[in-house]
Every structure is written in C-alpha cells, then in structure tokens.
Specification:
alpha+beta, six-stranded mixed β-sheet, 5 helices, 20% helix
Length: 184
C-alpha cells in the first residue's frame, strides 16, 4: 500500500486536496499506522485515533494564499524527521475525526491514504514560510533543539500567543501529528 501512494511534488497538487476530512501526518506511513493509535507522551495514555493536522482552510483565512496555508501546516512539524528518524515522512490522508487529543489536535481514523509529500515540496514550504519574515514563527518543537522552539517548550512567542489571546494551536497537534511516545 505505502509503495503505491503517489508523491505530491507541487503546491497545486496539495491545494487541490484541501477539505474538511483531509489531514497531514508525520510518521512512517499508513502501513506502520494501520494497527495502532497515538499515545499521549506525557501520560502514556492510548488515544482513540492518530494525531494529525487538518488541511481544511479556516474561514478567518479569507482569500489569503492557499499555498501559504498548506506550507505552514507542513512547516509546523518539519523537525519530526530529525527527531524521530529518517523513515518519518509527511503524508496526506482522508480521515474521520474520532476525538481530540491533549493538545486539542484532531485524532483521526485513516479512511484513505492519499499521498506522500516530497522533500522538494517540503523545501518549498520552508522557503515560503521564511519569506514571511516573522520573528515569532517557528516549528512546534518541544525538544528544545537549537533554532526551533524558542520558548522552552510552551508556545513559540514567549508566553503570549500570536492570535491575540485565543488558542494558539488552532486545533493542531503540537506533537507533530504523530505519536510522541513511540520513539520513532
């Protein structure tokens, strides 16, 4: 199944998949995830689904760039490849939300693996986010790696969120859309 997945190489391909049941996940892929669910890394509690980041456009995004929307969704968890190992990749899935995780992220049951995301597209995502030149923006990395989580593991802006006091996570999973306790 995994080898048969197409690989998305262009923003237009990814933007074409945007929808309310489409998610991006960082893991070893659909085959590795098929028989498991995510776990809360703080408590070890098994969660009812897989942590994932939604690719649905939010109404407040208005007519802003769809490419920037998907770029930021992928950029948030780019550190997971280094943290979890070389076989961890971004992939897109259609899923059914079965709950919310401890970071208010969607927990999903994969109904259809759609595609891998190419390294080239990930690089283009990084470049597009960097071009925004926001000093408060960075990946959601709790590991304290240099150049990533600038706030010591809470939020990326030193204690205040970028949205003026509302939920900074926007419903995304700070664990990177994958089980943080599996040591991947």
């Amino acid at each position: 199944m995994t080898d048969e997945l197409p690989t998305i190489t262009e923003f237009s391909e990814l933007v074409g998949l945007l929808g309310d049941d489409v998610y991006v996940r960082w893991s070893k892929g659909p085959e590795a995830d098929a028989a498991t669910t995510s776990r809360d890394s703080l408590t070890g509690v098994e969660l009812p689904g897989l942590s994932a980041s939604p690719l649905q456009l939010e109404p407040w995004w208005d007519d802003r760039s769809q490419e920037l929307w998907v770029a930021r969704r992928l950029y948030d968890y780019r550190h997971l490849r280094d943290l979890r190992g070389p076989h961890v990749r971004a992939w897109v899935l259609r899923g059914e939300e079965v709950g919310r995780g401890p970071d208010n992220e969607p927990l999903v049951r994969c109904t259809e693996p759609l595609a891998w995301v190419s390294d080239e597209l990930l690089g283009a995502c990084e470049a597009l986010v960097a071009a925004q030149r926001s000093p408060e923006w960075g990946p959601l990395d709790r590991s304290g790696s240099a150049g990533s989580d600038r706030s010591g593991g809470t939020d990326r802006s030193g204690g205040s969120d970028r949205s003026g006091g509302t939920d900074r996570s926007g419903g995304t999973d700070r664990s990177g859309g994958m089980d943080r306790s599996d040591g991947v």
